[in-house]
Structure formats: C-alpha cells, structure tokens
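Run Erythronate-4-phosphate dehydrogenase through structure prediction, thanks.
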Amino acid sequence: MLIVADENIPLLDSFFDDIGEVRRVSGRGMSPEDVQDADVLLVRSVTRVDRDLLEGSRVKFVGTATIGTDHVDVPWLESRGIAFCAAPGCNANSVAEYVLSVVSLHIEKKGLKDWADLSVGIVGAGNVGSELARKLDWLDCTVKLCDPPRAALEGEEGFVSLDEALACDVITLHTPLTRDGEHATYHLLGAGRLQALRADQLLINSGRGEVVDCRALLDRLDEANPPTVVLDVWEQEPRISPELVDRVWIATPHIAGYSLEGKVQGTEMIYQGLCRFLGLPVRKKAGQFLPEPALSKLSFTSAASEWSATTVAMRSCYDPRMDDSRLRLTMDREARERGGAFDRLRRDYPVRREFSSVKIQLKGTSKSLQDTFRALGFKLKI
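Sure, done. The structure for Erythronate-4-phosphate dehydrogenase is below.
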C-alpha cells in the first residue's frame, strides 16, 4: 500500500510505516502525478483535494490533519466512494492559547488591570471558539459568543448577534470558510463592518484568511483611528501582502494551531481514521511520541499576583512576538521569494509546547490562582 503524504505532517513514519510505504511530497505543490499510484492521501490545508487532483488515481482514502475541510471537495469524494477523515478539534487548544497570549499583551499595551476589564466577542463557537470561551470565562472576561448556524439549530439563548460581538473590546474570529448559503463567511468582515470598528478595539483573525477582506482592512488601517489588528491567517497565502504585515500590530505565518501537541494529535486522528477504514486495530497514541519539553517546571510563591503569575507562565510557553519578528524579516525579500519564505516559516517551525507540558509549583498561593492554572491547562504541584 502506498501512502502519499504532505511532507510537513509530523510523525508520519511513527504512525504509518507499518501500514504501508510512505512517500513524502510538497503539500503546496502536490500534483496529479504525485498521487496517481497512491492508495492513501494525507494532506494539510495547503492542498486542494478535488477532481483535478484525484481523477484517474487509485486513492481510496483521504485524510486531512486539519480541523478545516474547505480545501477538500467532500461531495466529489463521496460520489467516487473515496473515504474521508479530518481532525476536528486537534489544534483547538493550541489556537486558544495563541489568542490568550495575544490578549495578555493587549491588556498590558492598554494599561488595563487584568482580564476582567475586557469584553471578548468570539465569532464562531466550534471546537476552537468553545475552548477559548471556557478559558476566558475562568479569567473573568465578559464573553459573547456569535455563531448563527449553531443559534439556528440550538436556539438563540447563549448567543449574540454579529453586531453585538463586533462591539466588544476584543473580537476574535474562528469561523470556517464558506462562500454560499445564509451564513456564508467569505469576507464576513468587509469594508462596512471594518469601518465601524473603533480605535480602542482589538481584532484577531486566527481562523481563515478570507473571512476578512484584506484589501478593505488595509484601507481601514490607513485611515484615522484604526483598530488594533492581529493576523495569523491571510488572503492569498503564501504570497501575503507586505503592506498589510507592516500595518498590523502582530503578524504571524498561520501558526496559531502549530503547537506540537496540536500537530501530533492531527496525525493521530487521521491514523485512527485510516485504521477504521482498513479494519486495523488502533495501537498508537500521540502521547507515545511527545518528547520531554524544553521547559518543564515553573515556580511561584505567595508574592506573585494572579495576573503576573498567569501571564509569565503563558508567555514562557508561547510569546507571539517571536513569530511576528520572523515573519516581518521575510517581507524584506523580493516578491517572488516571499511565498517560499512564508511556507518555510511553517515547515521549519520551532517546537512549541502547550501549557499542559509545564508543571506549576505553587508555594503558599491562593486557591483562586491554583484553580486558574488548572483551568488554563497547566499541571500543578502544590
């Protein structure tokens, strides 16, 4: 059995080498010739999987190690009897931790006291949005969830309108990319909605680049009193706009979900899907392959405030300003080189571990701080 896989999917050999031969190819440049003799295809979001790629191949199973599926023509796969598996929720915690780290920097930048001073509008309450809401609730933020498809199915209680979410101090986008239907998200934030954003607001997009009209955003940022903007996802990746990078506060190369735990869990989920398809036992788990983290323990005493302790711990695990610096350095290259540089930042991304990889030692601290660390996912030693 031949398994053709995006070369950037982690632990391919560890999970799949006893199932078949693994052939690694470039996900961005994957061609019909690459997959023609494959039985199994494993991809990420950079590969468009449809008739143009698979017509005439012998592929019988497609797995994407991503939470999103807008890059896969699922109806066409179904029409051809090709099994499909995604990895919903695999990196939800990673993206939530990215947003928390960004918001902590924003609180400092604005001179606010702590999390309770903020209202946060979460647009899209799927795996990522729901996990983020849970953590923010514990931090005493005022959280407003906007998810029209869920509200239509479950009832309006617990959800707000898009306009109400967009009036919050922080707006964070976690919707899928859909182009048709009543709740299409393509250019959900177009010129009109961007124009209404205030200078004291923070807009974060770590969902899908095309949910924001980046041309209109660039125009808005050139006007008086623009909002503060953080972008992890962009239109026209990997050839993103250097002008937009220059104008946003924090710019990162589509890595919000790139914790090691999130990436390995994505591989594990498509491994499980392939085992089910082939009728094989599931013998491997992500935890078998996670190495010892570079940072394993932090210690706080009763002298530490809840704000300082949690932010120090968060940023010890992840500080988005490092990724911002790396991306900005690539913008000095010639236009024809920037796309490749963007992809290399993702391919060669340094190991980033989630909060759960760190044990927090607390000496004489309050129960409130202990509970907060637990809610954020850290391990505790008291």
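The chain has a mean pLDDT of 96.
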